[in-house]
Amino acid sequence: MIKLKNITKTFPGVKALNDVDFEVNPGEIHVLFGENGAGKSTLVNIIVGNLAPDSGTYQINGQKIDCLSPKVARLLGISAVSQEFSLAPSLSVLDNLFLGREPTRWGITNKKVMVQRAYKVLNDMKVKLPLFAPVNSLSRAQKQQAEIAKALMLDAKVLILDEPTASLTDIEAKRVIQLVKDLRQKCVAIIYISHRMREIRALANRVTVLRNGESVGTIESEEITENTLVEMMTGKKAGSLFPDISIRPGSLRLKISDMNFSNGGGYNISLSVHSGEIVGIAGLVGCGKGRIGRAVFGLEPIKSGKIEINGETVTQFSPRRIMRLGACYFPSDRVSEGLCMNRPVRENITMATLDSAAFVERGFIRLNNESNSSMVCAEHLKVDLSKLETSVENLSGGNRQKVLLARGFIRDIELFIFDEPTVGVDINAKSEIYLLMKSLVEHGAGILLISSDLEEIIKLSNRIYTMHNGSIVAELMDNNKSEENILSCFFGK
Amino acid sequence: MNSALYKIIHNSRRFEIAMFMGIALLLIGFAMKEPTVLSTTNILNVLSQTSYLAIFACAQSIVILVRGFDLSLGTTVSVVSLFTALVMVSLGAFSIPMGIAAGLLAGSIIGFFNGYCVAILEINPFIVTLGTYNILLAVSSTITGGFPVTGLPTIFPKLFSEISIIGIPIAVIIAVLIIVTLEYLLLNTVFGRNLYLIGSNPRAAHIAGISYKFNSIVAYILCSFLIAIGAILLTARTGSGEPNLGSQLTLQTIAAAVIGGMSLRGGEGSMMAPVLGACKRSRGILGAQSGALFSLR
Amino acid sequence: MKLNINNKALSWIMKVRIDLFFLPFVIFLIVLLMVFIEPRFFSRLNISNVLRYFSALSFTALCQGLVMIVGGFDLSVGSIMAMASVVSATTMISIQSIVPGMVGLHILCGVGAGIIAGALAGLLNGTLVSQLKVSPFIITMGTMSIISGSVYLYTKGAPIYGLPKLLIVEIGRGRILNLPILFFVALLAVLILWFIMVKTPFGRHTYAVGSNPRAAYESGIKPTTIILTIYTLSGVLSAVAGLIITARIGSGQSGIGSNAAIESIAAAVIGGVSLRGGIGSIPKVALGALFLAIISNTLNLAHIDSKYQTMVLGFFLIFAIAIERWISALFVRALFGGKG
Amino acid sequence: TNLTTVTAEAWSNFKVYNFDSGKPVKVDISPAEKASKPWKLYALLPHMKDGYWVSVNYGLVEEAKRLGVKLTILQAGGYSEMAKQVNQYDDCLSTNPDAILIAPIAESGLAAKIEKTAKTGLVQIGFVNPIKTAPVTSKIFVDYATKGRQTGEYLAKLFVERKGKVVAFPGPQGSGWAEAYLNGFHEALEGSTVDILADKFGPAGVAESLILVEDSLQAYPQMNAIWGGAPAAEAAIGAVEEAGKEKDMVIISSYENQTMVDFLKEDKITAFATEFPVMQGRIAVSMAVKALEKKKIPAYMEIIPQMATMDNIEDIDLTTVLAPPGYRPVFSVD
Ligand SMILES: Nc1ncnc2c1ncn2[C@@H]1O[C@H](COP(=O)(O)OP(=O)(O)OP(=O)(O)O)[C@@H](O)[C@H]1O
Ligand SMILES: Nc1ncnc2c1ncn2[C@@H]1O[C@H](COP(=O)(O)OP(=O)(O)OP(=O)(O)O)[C@@H](O)[C@H]1O
Ligand SMILES: [Mg+2]
Ligand SMILES: [Mg+2]
């Protein structure tokens, strides 16, 4: 159906794709796999017409395509879920779902039809979204769902999904996977990008692995194993993903008692995090797990309740004050809340650290220290060192996420609040991040890990709070923290 | 190797290099057409004219960096000029330092007011500075009834306008000092870094513990302080306090900053931008001059 | 879970609606104040004065509002106004001399020529902005000096007299239902634009391009086309503003509109349009224009020494907006609790 | 066109006040003869945006052509462009001119520079806008306060039987000249039967003035006279008509342009004051050439302003006041 040959694409200073061949046929799910920055999103962007390749040929249904614009691609039936979303933040969810192809009657948008069709797709996905709220008021996971719904809105012949499930829990991801399978049945050609092995195994008919902008090879579904994939991806054998963390809970790092949100939706939340432990919070999209982290950091107004950090009660809810108490928060939405996109990577890595003596002397930045430390940090997290001085917007999705996390490892922090820390990060970098977390905890920090990745939560944390509908419904420890237990809690059992 | 080259060019601001080369080429072009344009007196003359605009454009750029605006720049210049002159005329001895201090203080107060309204009251900078523009317009046309203040100590214009050091006019020297210091501060201090980060993504900066309020207010104060310096130099140039010294400067400064490469969306650009923009505008002056001379021939 | 989300949608809708409600509230407060200070504010003639000032201002504000929604700037409003004024006056007079007598035709041709000139200027702006990838601030500043330069060159600063009486008396000063005709023209424009921006795909696309041009492009919208159309439309709107002023002062003038850019941006910003694009509603922009018109009239009527008027205007601008924000925050807090 | 072929006879002796003795003495002033060589003159004007300055431009250009000298005219672009005019002054100097004709935006801004240049012996002529103290070779202008006084006195004469209520629209706030006009006007009306209800400063455009006049008509229903700059007077005509008060409203303009002439002839305004802008331009060039050719010239002259009314408008030689209709400003004469 779609056939790309000898595709090359260079960005200033980077060869993102080098002589790559790729094809996908109707009724097939073709998975693209590779490290962060391997060129997957770039390839996809070429297919949907967002970027023009430097050289190479592009055929759809045997017909050669020259100047492809997203508009033409849509007319040809190509529909895409992009990694960093193609949503207009100030428009409502409904408007975004139909952006560029609003149903009209006599030239006027037909809202009724729009609402009906939106509900139909959202029901298929078993998702509830506030249709009339502006997109910038949604959490990242909700944006992700909106983006998927937007792509499904079109009766596509080719569907492209670039990490569609990265911020979703298994429950929601399963729905998406089921929908994708249904579409395969209907002879849609599907390109799927993911770093989650489980999904790849469940879906893939074929996998093409990219490394450094070059195609390493394509394998059929029978040959897919985790080891082969990782080996193709990096050229090395796969190690173990999750480290063994020795938990030694010590003094109280964070204590929340009877907290209620001002905007409604949270009920008497109480929890605690000690030094030397990782505490997980799990729950479905929109259950309010992210709001807890935000509330601790003063980003979500609270009506009542008490928050103590390192024994001190928080009275002034500004991130600045709270950071002085030794806490740091890592937002889940890297683009809108986490990063300064047009500033260099180095500045983003150190941005939360500019009050520590290691980097600052009488108001002046010690530029050498800053450079060196950010380089060390970037190296740890496997961010390309040559990119230290380019602006973050030139990085691939996963690398952006790593830059966001980097700011935590460069500063002395006693309480870490991670909201979806590993969204879009490849397996290798993930294990690296977990190792870093391990060393943090073993040096006495406390970590509150809010995540939709169940495996991550179960393997890393020693205690797990599960949430449903704004309340904490259970605290699971030791043997209790099994997948079935957590899943049943998700539905408020 | 490709990427190394790229890095060098990227880091050394290819845009600015291109602009400089463009300006230089144009100068050569003018000179071929009309050689007296490149006479030393004329060059120095154009340079010192440029330096005033460059100082104002730098001031404007600082608030543009944090997604702001200063529409009150022009009337701030007038008010500071009048204040400085009034104090100098009314005080006997020490009148010059006191006058300068009064001007700088007036500038800082205006800056604080702007910053307070923008950062604490959270009103759109466009509206705030438009409001301040109007307020200062009234101030500048009432404190002296719309008339200029004359009778400044004669040494004042000598010291701050006519004097030149190794042949370079004092205004140029002060402007260069200001620009170099500012550029250094922006790149090397936490405050400068904060301005970039806030301008780039205020929400992310807030979450990273950077105080929007404090830094914005300081940015506005710094902006108006620089305007005050420029205004004092201009006062020295005209030798009198003028109630409408700078009303048209505002748009020019924004233009200079944007032409030079500042982004009105914030978080981008360096102090070279306003300077380049100002130079480009004086290229206009040179052009007009050579045109005029040409017609005289 | 359902309850939460509905609640959230509801709360968002409430917030937006309340927002729309506060500017009228502040305007209402000012009007109420005037009852005590100067009852003449409510005389028929004065209300017409305010509304006629509003009608010209609302056109420039709408023009600016649209351009700002799509993420741009238009500093050339004033020069387009002057150009439309001069072009239409010249056309009227030359047609008058060719076919005397048919006054309706003269006016029609004049207005048509003015609007076409405005559209062309807008098209020029739009083409440059969408093709050159240079900041619209610089581009429209450039076109501003080009247009006003050529208008001056043409008129040499002299006004153009001898326009049809009908234009001045019936349109410039005419009334329907005791309100100025021009006001209804403005009202009509506001309603039509509101409809377009809210109800048509084009309107949605405009917001999308302003909000996130990349996302709009990736959704199959052509930002260049949208930008081109909006700038052309804004050229037409500024031209109409110029024509309104021409009808009011009764001559073609090259000097009108010198304050239009700042004034219109102010009206749009007061009306809640974001300088960063994608946000803003048409009726609120019109309210912003009304707010400015009322303030200017109020200051003139309130017997304030005119030297201090600009000072009062300055404080008014800042603090009226501060009060508007403060009240709306208060309401939001009262309705939804918390620290807003 | 034939307009440009003006000969020496085009203007002959023109009456001005000579202040060289310290007191105003009415004298005749005569034009220069054709120049002995093409002197290089510069003229600095505040702007070229209205009929008034176009007329000044006309006077300068015609005289330069007549005398056969080179003239370059630089305009600053508006009364708020003080800094730009200072730059232009410097630009002139750096090109070695023979004489500079200066219509300053504000004397104070250029005073220091003029003084410095004066020491080099360069011929500097001040014209149109007052130069009070700075040392120029010669100067000709009208004292705005005098002119304001004159219009005030004229107004007072119209209201001997009934009481006058006037609102003043002097022009832009902080511009210097508007304030000076207004001061003279106030002075003249002190103790007369005319009350000044308010001074309304505002931008000098017809559209802006219209709003100001309309609002004032509401705020001061008792007013029966309007005094202001030309744009305000022009705007007043329509506004007064609409308010139905055209019968008993006196409209006086403090300065002239083609519109004022036309409206005066149609009896839509009562009077305007004139200070002969064309002649000021001509005299400035003539004096510069005379000075360069080492002829004796007065050091300080003032124009004798005149009120133009329905009765005398036909007698005034309008070629000494305004550029002919259709005249296009010229910026350099070779
Ligand atoms: N706009 C850009 N400018 C410069 N370089 C870019 C740009 N976009 C992408 N790149 C570079 O191109 C390479 C490929 O990026 P791409 O986004 O395709 O990676 P990816 O495979 O999708 O990675 P991830 O798993 O992190 O999403 C990276 O090295 C990235 O830094
Ligand atoms: N009852 C409520 N009232 C108002 N807003 C709510 C309510 N419940 C949730 N929200 C909003 O919904 C969004 C989702 O909440 P949150 O980020 O806590 O979800 P989450 O559990 O982290 O899920 P995910 O991040 O996976 O979407 C947030 O922006 C939050 O402000
Ligand atoms: Mg990617
Ligand atoms: Mg979340």
Protein model, in words:
Chain C: The chain crosses the membrane at residues 20-38, 50-70, 102-124, 136-155, 176-197, 226-247, 311-336. Chain C: Part of the ABC transporter complex LsrABCD involved in autoinducer 2 (AI-2) import. Probably responsible for the translocation of the substrate across the membrane. Chain C: Pfam families: BPD_transp_2 (PF02653). Chain C: The complex is composed of two ATP-binding proteins (LsrA), two transmembrane proteins (LsrC and LsrD) and a solute-binding protein (LsrB). Chain C: This is Autoinducer 2 import system permease protein LsrD. Chain A folds into two domains: 2-234, P-loop containing nucleotide triphosphate hydrolases (Rossmann fold), CATH 3.40.50.300; 251-491, Rossmann fold, CATH 3.40.50. Chain A contains 17 helices and 24 strands. The longest helix of chain A is centred in the middle third of the chain and has 16 residues, at 170-185. Chain B is mostly helical. In chain B, β1 and β2 (168-169) form a beta hairpin. Mean pLDDT of chain B is 80; it is low at 1-12 and 284-297. Chain C has 340 residues and is mainly α. Chain C contains 13 helices and two strands, in the order ααααααββααααααα. Chain C has a two-stranded antiparallel ribbon. In chain C, a hairpin with a 2-residue loop joins β1 and β2. In chain C, α2 (44-69) runs antiparallel to α10 and α11 (260-270) packs across α12. Chain C starts with a helix and ends with a helix. In chain C, 57% of the residues are buried. Residues 1-6 of chain C have low confidence and may be disordered. Chain D has a nine-stranded mixed beta sheet, with helices on both faces. Chain D has a six-stranded mixed beta sheet with strand order 9-8-10-11-12-14, with helices on both faces. In chain D, 61% of the residues are buried. Mean pLDDT of chain D is 86; it is low at 1-8. The chains are: A alpha/beta (493), B mainly alpha (297), C mainly alpha (340), D alpha/beta (334). Chains in contact: A-B, A-C, B-C, B-D, C-D. The A-C interface holds A 48, 50, 69-71, 73-74, 80, 82, 85-91, 95, 99-102, 104, 107-109, 128-134, 137, 150, 261-265, 286-287, 301-303, 469-470 and C 1-2, 4-9, 11-13, 199-201, 204-205, 207-208, 210-212, 214-222, 274, 278-279, 336-340. The complex binds adenosine-5'-triphosphate (2 copies) and magnesium ion (2 copies). One magnesium ion binds next to α1 of chain A. One adenosine-5'-triphosphate sits between chains A (139, 141-142, 167, 263-265, 283, 285-291, 332, 452) and C (4, 7-8).
The overall number of domains of chain A is: 2
| Rg result of chain A | 23 Å
Q: Give the helix/strand class of chain D.
A: alpha/beta
The strand order across the widest sheet of chain A is 6-9-10-3-11-12
* Run of helices and strands of chain D: EEEHEHEHEEHEHEHEHEHEHEEE
* The CATH fourth-level homologous superfamily of the largest domain in chain A: P-loop containing nucleotide triphosphate hydrolases
**Largest sheet data of chain A:** 6 strands, mixed
Mean pLDDT of chain A: 86
CATH topology of the largest domain in chain A: Rossmann fold
Helix/sheet category of chain A? alpha/beta
Order of strands side by side in the largest beta sheet of chain D? 2-1-13-7-6-5-3-4-15
In percent, how helical is the residue content of chain A? 25-40%
Strand content of chain D: 15-25%
What kind of assembly state do the chains in view correspond to? heterotetramer
Number of helices of chain D: 9
Bound ligands, named by name, code or SMILES:
adenosine-5'-triphosphate, magnesium ion
The CATH top-level class label of the largest domain in chain A = Alpha Beta
InterPro entries (chain C): ABC_transp_permease
Subcellular location (chain C): Cell membrane
Function (chain C): Part of the ABC transporter complex LsrABCD involved in autoinducer 2 (AI-2) import. Probably responsible for the translocation of the substrate across the membrane.
GO molecular function, one term (chain C): transmembrane transporter activity
